Design the sequence.
């Protein structure tokens, strides 16, 4: 594998591992997590969804649906992605966010692939599944990257904070894939986000019990990422804040996976991840980064 390929695989494994690790403590407070597990750092399943150890949730399975559509079309096509999300919802996923459900139901009803602008609906659902776009458009021109990330986002989420957060996560993953350090992520995509949307300012008060609001979610991710210096420490730090922990874990996992690479992922976590999911994410990561090479 080239360096780029191994970082792409690590990003996708990181997404799935962060999802599986965080899901155990989703909707718990940090205090409740301490009482139940001490420091939660094992993939053990359970949680409010009663998951098997290593099982993933919507964060990973929606990403896989998006990635399959991109590979089938050779790029991000709104109609195909909307149909993939529709099929995903029909498959009875273990969890689904309200905004995602509403957007897919709207597509079924109207055939439209972009929901109306909603100032109040800044959920994290579009950002949590953006990884396949980051991989497939790696090295493309900025306008193409932006368009692809927003096409997939607006099938369910159309909100300035969601758009900005989704583009930032996409940019962070792509910069990390090129083999950079945390400082470059902070000075590049994160600084750009803060300049455009100051509400994302994350320094100061630790974001505990982050909600599914994209601002809360990304504040927790940034704090975890910039306070640690390894894949493992980043994920443990982020998920032990509880709240929407499968999604903070998934987003931190994709960025940290790309940043620290495959060798940094603890073997115990890789082995604990559901085997079929592990195989699918590795295969899809390699296919999507190969597609990027064809630009
Ligand atoms: Mn989830
Ligand atoms: Mn979640």
Sequence:
């Amino acid at each position: 594998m080239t360096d780029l390929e191994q970082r792409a695989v690590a990003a996708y494994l990181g997404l799935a591992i962060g999802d599986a690790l965080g899901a155990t403590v989703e909707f718990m407070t940090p205090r409740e997590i301490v009482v139940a597990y001490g420091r939660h750092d094992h993939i053990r399943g359970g949680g409010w969804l009663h998951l098997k150890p290593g099982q993933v949730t919507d964060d990973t399975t929606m990403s896989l649906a998006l990635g399959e559509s991109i590979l089938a079309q050779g790029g991000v096509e709104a109609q195909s992605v909307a149909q993939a999300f529709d099929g995903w919802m029909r498959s009875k996923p273990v969890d689904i966010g309200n905004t995602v459900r509403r957007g897919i139901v709207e597509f079924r009803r109207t055939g439209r692939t972009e929901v109306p602008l909603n100032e109040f609906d800044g959920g994290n659902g579009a950002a949590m599944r953006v990884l396949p776009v980051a991989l497939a458009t790696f090295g493309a021109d900025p306008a193409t990257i932006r368009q692809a990330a927003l096409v997939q986002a607006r099938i369910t989420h159309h909100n300035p904070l969601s758009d900005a957060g989704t583009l930032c996560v996409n940019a962070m993953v792509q910069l990390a894939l090129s083999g950079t350090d945390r400082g470059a992520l902070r000075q590049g995509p994160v600084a750009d986000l803060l300049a455009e949307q100051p509400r994302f300012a994350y320094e100061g008060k630790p974001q505990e019990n982050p909600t599914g609001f994209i601002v809360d979610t990304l504040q927790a991710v940034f704090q975890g990422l910039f306070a640690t210096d390894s894949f493992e420490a980043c994920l443990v730090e982020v998920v032990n804040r509880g709240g929407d922990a499968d999604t903070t874990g998934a987003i931190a996992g994709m960025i940290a996976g790309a940043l620290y690479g495959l060798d940094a992922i603890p073997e115990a976590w890789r082995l604990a991840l559901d085997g079929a999911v592990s195989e699918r994410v590795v295969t899809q990561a390699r296919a999507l980064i190969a597609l990027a090479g064809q630009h």
Observations:
- Residues 202 and 222 are 7 Å apart (CA to CA).
